[in-house]
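Let's practice the habit of predicting before peeking. Look at the sequence and jot down your guess about where helices and strands might fall. Then scroll down.
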Amino acid sequence: MVRRARRINRELAEVYPYAHPELDFRNPFELLVATVLSAQTTDLRVNQTTPTLFAAYPTPEDMAAAVPEEMEEIIRPTGFFRAKTKSLLGLSAALRDEFGGEVPGRLEDLVKLPGVGRKTANVVLGNAFGVPGITVDTHFGRLVRRWKWTDEEDPVKVEAVVAGIFPKSEWTMLSHRVVFHGRRICHARKPACGACPIAPLCPSYGEGETDPEKARKLLKYEMGGYPGQRLSPPADYPGKPAPALGAG
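Done guessing? Here is the structure:
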């Protein structure tokens, strides 16, 4: 299993050499806020919303002083906007009061912030601070169970199992590759098995569409010729940038 898992990671590295976080951000604070907003919605919807949010509140100090109702209106498209506003106001005030307006670079500090759990903390550590971490979102959990790396459902237990399979230096990029694959090919309801580059390694091959032509029609984002989730993707991203809110 370990040998197969590591080979899957190597194969995914060849398929997605451009794998990256799919949230637009320019600094640790923006990534932290965007990741909190990404709960129960798409990264695309977050990316379409944050330009207005960060124009209004560019720093933790600014965000901590926001009028709740005004912030709610800005982030309404991301869903659960009242709860998310409460989290953003709380974490911004904590950053201002306890961390000098800076996002801390330690897991134990990040998870104390309102609305921030291990998943969010690992996203921020891995992508804003270069600290290796495994991000167990719904895509990651689904795929590692399909690949029989673990049958655990609890994200913390999944993280621990996968961390034992791979060297720490691989954790952050592994997370990106697995999530990319889950979003583009290995979908929840109908995986595109017939168009999957790692099908020979997959113990769950056949759960989805195996006909190559039909499977190709299921591919998403750049794999299917469609825009990605970021309005400002990395320079090496081979797909189209996502449209701004209201642009289509």
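How did you do? Residues 53 and 74 are 6 Å apart (CA to CA).
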